[in-house]
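[step 3/7] fold_predict: job queued, chain A
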Amino acid sequence: MSGAGLAWIVVEGFNILVLFYFVSLNAVYLVTSAYAFVALRRYARRLKTVEVEDLIKTAGAVPITLVAPAFNEAVSCVEAIRALLTLRYPEYEIFFVNDGSTDDTLARMVEAFEMVPTPLAPTARLRTAPVRQVLRSRIHPNLWLIDKENGGKADAQNAGLNYCRTPLYGGLDADSLLEPEALTRVVRAFLEDARTVAAGGIIRVVNGCTVQSGQVTDVRLPHSLLARFQVLEYLRAFLSGRMGWDALDAPLIISGAFGVFRRSVAVEAGGYDSTTVGEDMELTIRIHKHCRKAGIPYGVRFVPDPVSWTEVPESLQILGRQRDRWQRGLIESLWRHRDMLLNPRYGRVGLVAFPYFFFLEMLGPIIEGMGYLAFGTTVLAGRATFAYVAAFFAVAVVLGVALSIASVVLEELSF
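[step 4/7] structure written:
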């Protein structure tokens, strides 16, 4: 057999593998979407029968600490913290962590909120870059500032964990905008099930919306087509994806943009890993592992209506850097905990969720990129049959579009 003939056998074999990949990927999406539909409808019905505020009054509001890391956020830090101070929740503290900013972030915070040095004993000993000082606002007693040397976002989150004094701890991005009732709704997961150790809310795209005093007052689609695609992508990722994995009791990630953890469990698991760019996913996986090994009954939950708004990239260059960071974080997290892969000790997380993310999400960009290249080569060489082209288009494009539309329908039917 000639070299060219052998090469075409390899290409055609790879084309079959790519078709199998797309079928498997969309099959999982279909299953999680079906589970998400049932779970969302059930959740929406519960919202109509139980007022969250009444539940909190009955069960008691669990105190929570929000940790907002910031590096060179002088332009937006004051407004962001003012927005957090308007949250409607009975008892919460805010730890603004100045992660060695080189601009006047610290000075602006001190001036705007009348921050003064205040003794505060740490409650944990997670390793972090040195803390220079702890300050407290004279006008907002629940607002604290931790000034430390630069160590990165994960390091700053750990500094906040070290000083956290409440049973619950909330991590968020410095530019995240929380809905006023976001804390009330996400804490419901902890009140309804005492086993809950972590819960995350949905992330929405703020591009194109009107924001006043740190709150979204008018929801609109972004003007940029690239940002509009990300609106659809976020709906699909959270409502069809994370809601489905929650229904399967196997969520593998709590978004760093807005996640709440039981402080004691997060500390026992070792806090955030500052050596990875995917510290949010890595911590979630490690919490699964810690609770399983320690025999702790636990639950990791996704709550679909506590909203955190975030700005998405509107240029391909910035989007590319963001997705490169996300993919590297995914690879690092999965590879570090590869002993969980297909391991029955970790239940559905090890047997279902981990293999999906490992084989389909982690390897996806490589398989898809090479797949489109092989498909194009096959078509241009005139070796593609009509049946193959139709099958490829159906599983790679049509099913994907249908599932994306289904995500929008899920939201409309539920909320």
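[step 5/7] annotate
Residues 3-49 form the longest helix (47 residues).
The chain has a mean pLDDT of 90.
exit 0
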